[in-house]
């Protein structure tokens, strides 16, 4: 049963809205206004009418939708095509202890936390207080905040925790911090990076080699979408051509 | 502490082996023989020597490595680039109830089960007994078999369960079963498919439209890898150009 | 020496304009006005000043630039990435006799004519008079109109010429005309097609097989561009993801 | 009529051979032996039988086939997907004067020469005598040797010619020679490069910027092929993922 504070996906014939239900308030669309009180107490899968009589499904947002449409963004997020792959390449599963820096808007953190549920932990190192606060709110929205242990500083500071099973670094000059991170990684732990430029890839590879990391990999993920028309099946005209290079290595 | 029956990743300077530890037995490499009794009782991250004195790390295989190297395959598996993305597109998270058919070698099932841990369930429909048995063994290896409820029949049979939150269909002619699956899906539930040919995509799209599914999407994921050499950074000469088309829709 | 009627490329520090020189007229830019009389009599590579004193190079447009910026378009043109490859796949060289239908805006025709220069011929079949007229003007601009022999009808009509060395078909339902075209192709001649949808590819392949064409090929060309910044080398954020599928076969 | 010395494409049901016809000699296939005297005097498009009665078409090789299968290779060739695009980006057309270094096996030179036919010229600078000799033989095979003016030295030597309309550089460290080449280029002339690594791209971009070249572009061309089966249309499993980065700029 839907209650105040729940995030709902209102899905009409052509439109989708992701909103938080607030008692005695309403939500306006160009198809008319929806009263939240008409939603509270219903079940996911039920419908609600606007004051103009337009029908909307009340759906439970998936984790995917929360990340793309439900979270508040202060930064460019890591896209699902990348965050899903990163999480699997790091091999995240319940019980693992993971280091992440920085947190951005928490889009990757949510996907990683979901894989670590119920008994894994992400130790986040983020120097921007407003990013950290916002990301933690986003994790709450996804009901995965219990997985995260936040720290308000970057990786140039000593890291108090140790014996990490994996690490993911998404900062501008990651090569500056690899030696520090290595000192708290278990042997064989996977470290990952995402950077937009080839120059950054080159710097990271140099430092990983200097520090005897093993199994270096550089990859990129491309997502191509098609017009879903059975009589005229063809790729979309344009696509995202680049989000970033992914780099992985094992602590040797 | 490592004990009999554990899967270990033996990592030398150039070679990697994924083996199950068996008491009083040994394992041969071209760098010499390793006695499993020398491994039992050690911790992950420790090293072991071959009879020729060659050193190997004893590492805990990640979920990613289990899928690619540790599981026994009877079929072409769904690759990590695809299985990670599918799992996120379906929005899988603890508490959800998911339908999957068929199970293949369980590579996708493992990734989905990990996202559903601890309180989700995958109801698997697979008509080949040897596939089902092997896949369940693979899930045990990944310690995720508690998430799976197996059924030894395909989707042409009535489905006893209902109110599924998501479904993934990987069979040769998926369009034959969509109507049956729809009858047990919740409103708004995401259904996904993977097929290799454009002809299959066209048939699936036709049937999804006929049955009033919403938000149809056709996508493909391409993974491009680079030679990890800082002085000569460049893509690999060749790549996998196609595994399959991914199709997603919402039950309308 | 530049004279009236020449197409020139006016290249400033940031802007490029492709214009035809007309006596006693002028051309306005947001950097000021350029008198064409100041250009007539100069040589390519010289500069000209706007009335505000801004300097522009007077360059001879390359064939590539003529196609992308100089020709008048009534239709979506075939992009250089595709037209260059098509021309080479057809194996076009001086002395060959080529069939093309339709002509569109002549962008592909120009590239093919250039490869056929000086002694090849393109027999064009185009039913839209305004397309044909415009394309012939564009070929004149490229000084390649002597290669083209135009016909104002489509391929449903009998083709008077015969013994073609190659053919390229760019119409909506090419499969309707393949049998007619085959009757005028030499043995071993290459036929090519460009179509946007997989459904069209499937229809063409069926007909080519029915008519015993050999060496069927389906290909697509993707062009990915990078930001040309040495300190931050990376792909552009977005790219054209699809122009069309290319199909080639040999007359068997 | 086919005569001694002609290159022919012998095309059977499943096999293709590109051979030079030699009087009184024969050619063996696993489908039987073909006597060249049975080919001399016939026309392209005719057939010939092996001593086992297997039929082969006698086809005239296209320029495309000559490049891929007919020329003798001492080096990795520039692939048609790249050479076709380079030729169009340089804007090559009859009357232009082009600089090329090195020549490799002449695969690109053939495509460029074809676009420059009849009144263009390519001044080739190549320091390896055996490469130059072999490439010139390949150009003869394509009947395009009249377009090429060879020089047996590299670009570190003074270049006697000047006023080039375009240049293409395919050597290991192209940045060493850009200043020398610039001194013989017309204003506005396009210069192009092909290099395999991002490090080389970065060095070239730095030097082009230092020398005030304009309109810098970095691109790559990807060719994806499909299985040409109408009932099961799908991309091939694997593809060439990288040949090289293309760089273009204009002399400013």
From TrEMBL, chains A, B, C, D:
Any Pfam family matching the protein: GCD14
GO cellular component: tRNA (m1A) methyltransferase complex
EC numbers for this chain: 2.1.1.220
Keywords: Methyltransferase, S-adenosyl-L-methionine, Transferase, tRNA processing
Primary enzyme class: transferase
Domain of life: Bacteria
Keyword Transferase set for record: yes
Reaction equations catalysed: adenosine(58) in tRNA + S-adenosyl-L-methionine = N(1)-methyladenosine(58) in tRNA + S-adenosyl-L-homocysteine + H(+)
CDD domains with a match to the protein in the record: AdoMet_MTases
Entry-linked InterPro entries: SAM-dependent_MTases_sf, TRM61_C, tRNA_MeTrfase_Gcd14
Keyword Plastid: no
Sequence positions that bind S-adenosyl-L-methionine: 105-108, 126, 154, 170
Annotated ranges, domain tRNA (adenine(58)-N(1))-methyltransferase catalytic subunit TRM61 C-terminal: 57-227
Molecular function (Gene Ontology), one example: tRNA (adenine(58)-N1)-methyltransferase activity
Listed GO biological process terms: tRNA methylation
PANTHER family noted in UniProt: TRNA (ADENINE(58)-N(1))-METHYLTRANSFERASE, TRNA (ADENINE(58)-N(1))-METHYLTRANSFERASE, MITOCHONDRIAL
Subunit structure: Homotetramer composed of a dimer of dimers.
Family to which the UniProt record says this protein belongs: Belongs to the class I-like SAM-binding methyltransferase superfamily. TRM61 family.
Protein function: Catalyzes the S-adenosyl-L-methionine-dependent formation of N(1)-methyladenine at position 58 (m1A58) in tRNA.
Protein name in the entry: tRNA (adenine(58)-N(1))-methyltransferase TrmI
Taxonomic source organism: Sulfurihydrogenibium azorense (strain DSM 15241 / OCM 825 / Az-Fu1)
């Amino acid at each position: 049963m839907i209650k105040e504070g729940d995030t709902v996906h209102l899905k009409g014939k052509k439109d989708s809205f992701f909103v938080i239900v607030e008692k005695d308030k309403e939500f306006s669309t160009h198809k008319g206004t929806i009263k939240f009180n008409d939603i509270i107490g219903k079940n996911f899968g039920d419908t609600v009418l606007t004051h103009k009589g337009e029908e909307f499904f009340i759906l439970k947002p998936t984790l995917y939708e929360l990340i793309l449409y439900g979270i508040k963004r202060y930064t460019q997020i890591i896209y699902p095509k990348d965050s899903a792959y990163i999480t699997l390449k790091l091999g995240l599963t319940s019980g693992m202890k993971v280091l992440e820096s920085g947190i951005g808007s928490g889009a990757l953190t949510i996907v990683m936390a979901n894989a670590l549920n119920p008994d894994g932990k992400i130790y986040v190192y983020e120097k921007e207080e407003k990013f950290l606060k916002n990301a933690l709110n986003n994790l709450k929205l996804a009901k995965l905040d219990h997985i995260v242990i936040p720290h308000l500083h970057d990786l140039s500071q000593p890291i108090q925790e140790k014996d990490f099973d994996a690490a993911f670094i998404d900062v501008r000059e990651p090569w500056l911090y690899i030696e520090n991170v290595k000192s708290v990684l278990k042997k064989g732990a996977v470290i990952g990076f995402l950077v937009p430029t080839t120059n950054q890839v080159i710097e990271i590879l140099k430092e990983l080699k200097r520090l005897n990391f093993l199994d270096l990999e550089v990859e990129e993920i491309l997502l191509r979408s098609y017009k879903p028309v059975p009589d005229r099946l063809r790729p979309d005209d344009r696509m995202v051509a680049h989000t970033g290079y992914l780099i992985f290595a094992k602590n040797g």
